Amino acid sequence: MNPLNPIRDQIDQVDQALIELFSKRLALVAEVGKIKQQYGLPIYAPEREAEMIAARRQEAEKQGVPADLIEDVLRRVMRESYASENKHGFKTVNLAIQKIVVVGGRGKLGGLFARYFTQSGYSVELLGSQDWHNASEILANADLVVVCVPIDKTLETIERLQPYLTEQMILADLTSVKAQPLAKMLEIHQGAVVGLHPMFGPDIASMAKQVVACCHGRFAERYQWLLDQIKIWGAKLEPIDAKEHDHAMTYIQALRHFSTFAYGLHLSQQPVKLSQLLALSSPIYRLELAMIGRLFAQDGALYADIIADKPENLTVIESLQQTFQQSMAFFQQGDK
Fold first, then answer.
1. Structure pTM?
2. Distance in angstroms (rounded) separating the CA atoms of residues 65 and 58
3. pLDDT for res 31
4. Which residue, 49, 57, 171, 273, has most beta carbons within 10 Å?
5. Residue 246: closest CA among 304, 196, 178
6. What is the edge-to-edge ordering of all strands in the sheet holding 236-239?
7. Measured distance CA(241)–CA(317) in Å, rounded
8. CA nearest 268: which of 243, 245, 296?
9. What is the pLDDT confidence band of residue 44, given thresholds at 50, 70 and 90?
10. Cα–chain-centroid distance for residue 333?
11. Are strands 100-103 and 170-173 parallel, antiparallel or unpaired?
């Protein structure tokens, strides 16, 4: 007999009890999701989450359980809970909206937003690159037109929409650059205009805690319902001027993506075994390698467009190259 077996049996029993408790908690979360859908409450309630985490940390410490452990477990459970709440759909903020058209809705990000609109009770139609022969019918009587196409196709797509737009329509875009698309929308459309940038990819399990940059255009009161709907999905809206947004994206996206690309390219040319690097790495370094893998596993054209979108991006990247040279000199000179 292994002397650990009796204790291991008890641990197995406790683990089984934990699974049963998690099952009960998820069942309660399902009820919460139904109530939120019914009353139009946001998926993510930051005050409630903060209060609950603080209370559970205190309770854990009283019982000699590491507070960080409880917080880690709860945050993981809450992520699952947010994803579970999505299954019940969302309250329709504006019942007067008859039709939403997502241009590029067959793409991954456009498809994500089309799905969320549908789950919120709206009638959604898609306008893809092969559908322009039928654009007049698809766009007829639309209340909201959302443009979600590759960066290099955004301006021409917005221009292409002009003959089909009416003054009562809301025109929005989901491009990761904002100044030019927003200016183009304001130029070709006399109705309400708003520029949005989801700061996440299409592979999210939930919009809870995700950030959507919002660049106001014209007639904000007409599209306020859209912003409220996005909040109900759980996202946080971050208002910002379009030019300031693009300047910030130079550092948040272009510089970061270029660094990841260059790091991955360099690794691919080195005499290393990635499996060995992963086996020997700390969690943080494995995360860095995972970020490289994520970039190279996705659409190269998308990252190329983001990195080379405007001259400012390449200028800042060139300054990074100069900083590398300056940093190298420190070590060559032994300057600790």
1. 0.85
2. 10
3. 87
4. 171
5. 178
6. 124-127, 100-103, 144-147, 170-173, 192-198, 211-218, 236-239
7. 23
8. 296
9. confident
10. 44
11. unpaired
The number of residues in the chain equals 336
pLDDT in tens, 210-221: 999 999 999 999
Helix 5-39 with 67-85: angle, nearest 10 deg: 40
Beta bridge partners of 197: 213
Tokens at 305, concatenated = 């467009």
pLDDT recorded at residue 137? 97
Task: Please answer whether residues 244 and 251 qualify as being in contact, where contact means their C-beta atoms are separated by less than 8 angstroms.
Answer: no
Count Cβ atoms within 10 A of the Cβ of residue 21 and give its class: 0-12 exposed, 13-18 middle, 19 or more buried: exposed
Q: Which two tokens stand for residue 136?
A: 């007049």
| Two tokens, residue 99 | 């039709």
Higher pLDDT, 88 or 124: 124
Closest CA to 245 of 216, 274, 288, 219: 216
DSSP state of 162: G
CA 206/CA 192 separation, integer angstroms: 28
Alpha helices in the chain (DSSP H): 5-39, 46-62, 67-85, 108-119, 135-139, 151-161, 179-188, 220-232, 242-249, 255-268, 274-280, 283-297, 300-307, 311-332
pLDDT tens for each residue of 232-263: 999 999 999 999 999 999 999 999 999 999 99
Q: Is 100 exposed, middle or buried (0-12, 13-18, 19+ CB in 10 A)?
A: buried
